[in-house]
Design goal:
Blueprint: H1 7-25, E1 37-39, E2 46-48, H2 49-65, E3 70-73, H3 74-79, E4 93-100, H4 102-107, E5 113-120, E6 123-131, E7 136-141, E8 145-149, E9 155-157, E10 170-173, H5 182-189, E11 195-197, H6 202-210, E12 216-219, H7 224-236, E13 240-242, E14 258-261, H8 264-275
Parallel strand pairs: 3-4, 10-11, 10-12
Antiparallel strand pairs: 1-2, 4-5, 5-6, 6-7, 7-8, 8-9, 12-14, 13-14
Length: about 280
């Protein structure tokens, strides 16, 4: 891998998200005018004027900082799905989720985030997950660890939870996008875990996971902007993740599911508990 990203570059990504949050996201939180919310693929898949304005601002700032980089935003990709195909060969590409947890944002719940992942030829090399409400960022640089930077400059390293048996695991589990009969299988096995929840916001679920506040996460819908930054955050915090069949994840993958755990042993135990397979 020839293209790398530094901590200072990653902090610049966080600064872009922070500036955009103050300019375009927070002014409209609990203040969305009539007509500012629309459905995309379904009534549960929402976009707001704030999502679109935030993506435009983030993209413009990235284009100025990195001329020639490929910019793949969630809303732009909805209009032009072929953008995602550029990830494989791009020397530098950015995956942008302007507001993750839009349903929470629309509902007035302060549980949403903003994400950027930097990629080199289909590999994630840096990621940021920003919390616009508390104004802090979780950052990761490939090979250099993961950490949180708070608004007033304090930093703290991130580390995943210690391994635990399935009966003591706390999990962030999303089964709504699973096909049958897998959905019924997983739902019928959730009681094998210590507890399960869904925040309807991958940004905050990944931050909890990388900080050790839960043990596992389980996803099926693999839109790249939802997972690339969080995958690296978890990996650099010491965690282990793979597709349901055990193969490694890349943001170019659009199927196969994702299961996260503190280590490989916990991953296999969680997989057996949820899928009922070795």
């Amino acid at each position: 891998m020839s293209r790398t990203f530094t901590r200072e570059e990653t902090r610049r990504l966080a600064a872009i998200l922070a500036d955009t949050a103050q300019a375009e996201v927070m002014p409209h939180f609990r203040n969305l005018p009539e007509g500012a919310v629309r459905g995309k693929s379904s009534a549960r898949d929402l976009v707001t004027d704030a999502d679109e304005a935030a993506e435009r601002m983030i993209s413009a700032r990235l284009a100025k900082l990195y001329p020639g980089a490929v910019l793949i935003g969630e809303e732009a990709s909805t209009r032009n799905p072929a953008l995602l195909n550029m990830l494989v060969d791009a020397d530098l590409a950015f995956l942008i989720d302007p507001i993750d947890g839009t349903r929470n944002y629309v509902a007035g719940l302060p549980l949403f985030g903003m994400m950027i992942a930097a990629c080199h030829r289909g590999d994630v090399i840096a990621g940021v997950i920003y919390d616009p409400v508390h104004r802090d960022a979780a950052l990761a640089v490939r090979g250099e660890g993961a950490w949180v930077e708070y608004e007033h400059g304090r930093q703290a390293a991130l580390a995943v939870a210690s391994p635990a048996p399935p009966s003591e695991m706390d999990g962030m589990i999303a089964t709504g996008a699973l096909p049958e009969p897998l959905r019924t299988t997983v739902n019928s096995h959730l009681s094998r875990l210590g507890s399960t929840a869904s925040l309807r916001c991958a940004a905050h679920e990944y931050r909890m996971l990388a900080a050790g506040h839960c043990h596992i996460a389980f996803y099926n819908q693999l839109t790249a902007w939802d997972h690339a930054a969080g995958w690296l955050l978890h990996r650099e915090a010491g965690g282990y993740a793979a597709h349901f069949d055990g193969s490694p994840y890349k943001p170019t993958h659009r199927s196969g599911g994702l299961l996260y755990a503190p280590d490989a042993g916990s991953w296999h135990a969680a997989r057996k508990a949820l899928l009922g397979e070795e």
